[in-house]
Amino acid sequence: MSTDTCFDIESVKIQSGSHVVFDWDNTLKLYDKKQRIISCRVDKHLLQTLKHEKQCKLYVISAISPSRMGLETLVHEVSKLGLLDIFTEPDDEPTIHAGRYARKGNLITCGYDKAEIFLELSGLGTRSEERQSTQESTGRDEYEDDVIEVDGEDYVDSARGVPSRAVNLPHTTPSVFFFDDEEVNITNFSTIVPNSKCYLVK
Question: Could you say which DSSP state residue 9 is in?
């Protein structure tokens, strides 16, 4: 887990297969008060590259009211910027869990428990619980000898002592990149989400 201050999201090197989580207001979405228009901080082509070429899972998690109206507002703004296909699939239906979260695909509104909701909806929370259970029952971390590849770099399999170029191993925990403009969210996310790299956007 690490945290940093980020002035240019596009300069962050995001590895293939990562989960990439954006806050919405003042992070991915920018609002020009004088012209009263919204724009996207990140070039759409880069978002498409992350999703389609790097096979990343992209999310928007916003602290908008977890209600149908709040979700509809988020979906409308994302659609207005031409980004709906980045975060949703054509058959995604809105899901409302009153008081907790509302979602359409990977467009999610919730309170300030963004980290907990992300772990639940991404499935990484279940994996963490399974990992903890394994450690408690066996005294060994079953993930510790996994081989991973990050941007083509070789890593050594400590169980065999040889270099390898493994991709999509079943026990490899993917990296999570989180971008938000509020420090409290950065602190919570970096504390709660394993293997996360959090950036305070300025």
Answer: G
CA distance 199 to 4: 5
Domains of the chain, residue spans: 2-125+170-201
CATH of 2-125+170-201, one of 1.10.1740.10, 3.40.50.1000, 3.40.190.10, 3.90.1150.10: 3.40.50.1000
> pLDDT tens across 10-48, in order?
889 999 999 999 999 999 999 999 999 999 999 999 999
pLDDT at 145: 37
CA distance 195 to 11: 20
Between CA 108 and CA 60 the distance in angstroms is 6
How many Cβ atoms from other residues are within 10 Å of residue 198's Cβ? 25
